[in-house]
Amino acid sequence: MKMIAKTIAAAAVVAVTGVASISAMDEAHAAFDICKKVKITVQNKTGAPIKLFDLDYKDFGSGRMRSENISNRVIPNGGSYTWKRNLEGVNNAKTYVRAQYSKLKSNGKWDLRYYWWQNSSTRVCSKGKRYKVTLN
Length: 136
Prior knowledge:
A hairpin with a 4-residue loop joins β2 (50-59) and β3 (64-68). The model is unreliable at 21-28 (pLDDT under 50). With 136 residues, the chain is α+β, with helices and mostly antiparallel strands. It has one helix and ten strands. The longest helix has 31 residues, at 2-32.
């Protein structure tokens, strides 16, 4: 009976160690897959002010959109704003940036029922790469 308990305990230690080493590899791999110091510029050419509320980017490797948290920002017509971000999961990989925004209603309030979006061009991400999204 003691032999079975020792075997089970040893198997549990090996299993936990294996999971820990896999987790460490995933974290280390993720650290190398960060596209650093990417400059994202959103330019407003819609003819009216817009309220930018979200920036996303496409991770073609996993097939999903990843989000960059930003504060809501009003950009006047003809104006632009630039962020510098680290994009995870897309270093040396194709990606594009998507800007999502709201427009003003005729009563001067932001239309919260609908939103619009525009993508940048798709390109390979590398350190210091620039992405520009022009809202028309």
